[in-house]
Amino acid sequence: MSKRSRGRRRRAKPRSRSRAGILYAVVGVTAVAVLTAVLLNQSAPAGTAVSSSDGLSPSVQPSGGSGGTASAKPSATATEPARKPTAKATKAASVAGTDTLRDAVSRAAGATSVAVTDLTTGRTLDYGGAGHGFACASIAKLDVLATLLLEDQDKGTELTAAEQALATKMIEHSDNAAADSLYTTLGKAPGMDAANKRFGMTSTHSGEGILWGVTTTTAADQVTLLRQVFTSSSLLSTASRAYIQGLLSQVESDQRWGVSAAATSDDYELKNGWLPRSTTGLWVVNSTGRVDRDGHQLLISVLSDGNPTMDQGIDLIESVAKAAAEALLPG
């Protein structure tokens, strides 16, 4: 597919869309009950990955820009950003917020799922997409880089200057050729699957051959990966985490949509993915990252597929991201 050409506001307001059909009315009450349990830190059904039947070739991997040079380098003195403590959300307000989230998810033309962790309070939310494996598209590039850095740590080596240049293109510009090269360097699916197992990502399955874009995952697994990037309880070193964070903070301006809709400031880092499936023409649209919301540091991932257009997918995930953050942090 071609690179997304038009820019978007950092926190674009989702468009209104028609209500879902009778099916959503039938399951609505159950959905509220499940989400309420999750908001109260109880367990909820987790989605499991399924293999993709779409035999994508490298030419139809999620598209990215071209060019760019290395603009961030691991630093031995890098430190994790300070997290601001704030008050916990009340039980009553959390329950009230489930209606907005349920309504946002109900607008999906296909499947959608969201997971959020509040690093400030420790509260979590995981909603939608149970039993469904989502194709990663270009959010797999974050996994590629984390795996490559972990492998280098194991070997006691660092990224070469050439690998750093490729990493910058891959993350900041979503360049596919750079991802192809680095995915090959880390050992393709066997290498990334081995790292993901160590990261604790139990429902993510890497794409075969060079097809990193059809790696399947869940929103909960993507938040698990974000914890490796944004918390000290990580297999990645402080320097590796700071390096990834630096690249995520500098994605090009026309790719700053998605989970950034949940932020209340310009303090966020993210990676997005978008991909039209060759068998259906419907769009996978995903977004994952860290946002600041009223002083709370949220790790948030929203995954979707079956979108009629890319723009409709973007509007959906922005609406779901914002609603999920409001449900977790009402007020």
TrEMBL record:
The keyword Lipid metabolism does not apply. The chain crosses the membrane at residues 21-40. GO terms for molecular function: hydrolase activity. It comes from the Bacteria. Keywords: Hydrolase, Membrane, Transmembrane, Transmembrane helix. SUPFAM superfamilies: beta-lactamase/transpeptidase-like. Residues 47-95 are annotated as: Disordered. The keyword Transmembrane helix applies. It holds the Pfam family Beta-lactamase2. Residues 156-258 form the Beta-lactamase class A catalytic domain. InterPro entries: Beta-lactam/transpept-like (IPR012338), Beta-lactam_cat (IPR045155), Beta-lactam_class-A (IPR000871). This is Serine hydrolase. It comes from Streptacidiphilus alkalitolerans. The lineage of its organism: Bacteria, Bacillati, Actinomycetota, Actinomycetes, Kitasatosporales.
